[in-house]
Write a structure and sequence with these properties.
By secondary structure, the protein is α+β, with helices and mostly antiparallel strands. It contains two helices and three strands; from the N terminus they run βββαα. It has a domain at about 1-40: Rubrerythrin, domain 2 (Single Sheet). The protein has a three-stranded antiparallel β-sheet with strand order 2-1-3, with no helix packed on it. A hairpin with a 5-residue loop joins strand 1 and strand 2 (about 15-20). It is elongated, with a radius of gyration of 30 Å. The termini are far apart.
C-alpha cells in the first residue's frame, strides 16, 4: 500500500498514512479536527536493501568456480578400486 502525506490547514500538523489506492483522501486532521490536504510527494521509488545489484556481487569465489574434470573423477574412482 502506498504512503500518503497530509498537512493540516489549521494547525500545520503533517502526517503520513498508509492507504489503498482506491481509498478516499482523508479530510480531517487527527490532532485538531481541521481540514487537511494531501501533499504531492515523489514517493520512495526503488529501494535496494543489501548487496547484490551489481553484476560483480553475484560472482562466486575462484575456489567454487573450479569444476572437477570428468577425467579426474575417473582417475579418483579407479584409484579407490585399486585399494
Amino acid at each position: 500500500m502506498p504512503t500518503y502525506d497530509y498537512r493540516c490547514g489549521k494547525c500545520g500538523h503533517q502526517f503520513e498514512v498508509f492507504q489503498s489506492i482506491t481509498d478516499n483522501p482523508l479530510t480531517e486532521c487527527p490532532s485538531c479536527g481541521g481540514s487537511v490536504e494531501r501533499l504531492i510527494s515523489s514517493g520512495a521509488g526503488l529501494v535496494f536493501k543489501g548487496s547484490g545489484f551489481y553484476v560483480t556481487d553475484y560472482k562466486k569465489s575462484p575456489e567454487s568456480t573450479k569444476e572437477t574434470k570428468p577425467a579426474d573423477k575417473k582417475t579418483a574412482a579407479s584409484s579407490k578400486l585399486d585399494d
